Amino acid sequence: MKINDKNLAAFATSQSQIDKAGYLMKKGDGSKSFAKRWFVLKGNLLFYFEKKTDKEPLGVIILEGSTVELAESEMEEHFCFKIVFPSKAYIVGAESHQVMEQWMKALACASYDYVKLMAAELQRQLNELCQAETAEETKSGASSTAGSSSGAEAAGPTPPPRMKHSKEQKPAKKRMPFGILHEQYGQKVMADQNERWSKALK
């Protein structure tokens, strides 16, 4: 995808929100030859430049709906992988097997759908931890109450507490479960991130 929007080009060349950057070999559309390009990954947008110092990218690959796979047929010349869409595939080569793996992992985790799945899994784990913590606190409280009751019966009735003329004590603040805090702040973080992306793509 070629870029004509000045705001998107400015976002591509800014130094903020860079997830990964480096030189890769990109196979031309309808061509058997590779060209060296500078790639910059920002969120789910993969920009590519002719040179690192260029002020405007040659194009951008929007990673939503894509999969990242090895390009075994291209392995003779480079350590190649491909970004696959239903109607198209981009073939890219790295200088080493390690660099290829690093880029494949970064690209596979870059889509918004993947982020949503990870957030949902983290939320599930947090909910389980909170439920286990609540059950443990309830069990401990019940054991403590039972012990106090049996001790009081053995020692006889307990006299009522004396009233002290002191300053009124403030009620203790109710402790909010970590899962609720995570959900509240997580929603705010995601809303802020979506707003930044919307502004960047306008």
UniProtKB/TrEMBL annotation:
Domain of life: Eukaryota
Pfam families assigned to the protein according to its UniProt record, in alphabetical order: PH
CDD domains reported for this sequence: PH_Ses
InterPro entries: Boi1/Boi2-like, PH-like_dom_sf, PH_domain
Region (Disordered): 137-178
Organism: Orchesella dallaii
Residue intervals of the PH domain: 17-112
Protein name: PH domain-containing protein
